[in-house]
Amino acid sequence: MVDQDFEARLAGKRLTTTEVLYYMPAHPKLLQSFLWQTLDVAPEFPRVHQFLQFWRREIDAVIHSVMVSAAGLVTPARIELADFEGRLQ
User: Fold this and answer.
1) Boundaries of domain holding 63
2) How many domains, in total, are found in the chain?
3) Which residues lie closer than 8 Å to 41 by C-beta, 6 or more apart?
4) What are residue 63's DSSP bridge partners?
5) Of 25, 47, 71, 85, which one is least surrounded by beta carbons within 10 A?
6) What span, in angstroms and rounded, lies between the C-alpha atoms of 1 and 83?
7) Tens-of-pLDDT digits for all 89 residues of the chain?
8) Cβ atoms 55, 9 nearer than 8 A
């Protein structure tokens, strides 16, 4: 038995992350971020387009910008450590 997500990735779908920056309805000068992940087909991204059409039709928040990124084909997992040290003040 094969996982359906794995089969979809073998068929060409990619793990797609969409970040939507939008103006909060109650505070129109503030931006809020919304992250959404799905399996989609690059470069057309039909599921992302459906989601954005739904947002514009049903959600009372104006979109400022949208950033879409997609992971490539199925690959082994990698862990990379960042060489960074910082302080929040």
Assistant:
1) 4-70
2) 1
3) 12, 13, 14
4) 22
5) 85
6) 40
7) 668 877 777 777 888 999 999 999 999 999 999 999 999 998 899 999 999 999 999 999 999 999 999 887 666 667 676 666 666 55
8) no
Predicted confidence at residue 85, as pLDDT, reads 61
- Residue 60's SS3 state is coil
Tokens standing for residue 9: 């990735």
Tokens of 60: 């009372």
Establish if 42 belongs to a structural domain. Answer: yes
Decide if 23 is inside a domain: yes
Q: Give the global pTM.
A: 0.72
Residue 77 lies in a domain: no
Rounded Cα distance, 56 and 79, in Å? 37
What are 40's two structure tokens? Answer: 């989609």
Q: Within a domain: residue 58?
A: yes
Task: Output DSSP code: residue 54.
Answer: H
Q: How many residues does the chain have?
A: 89
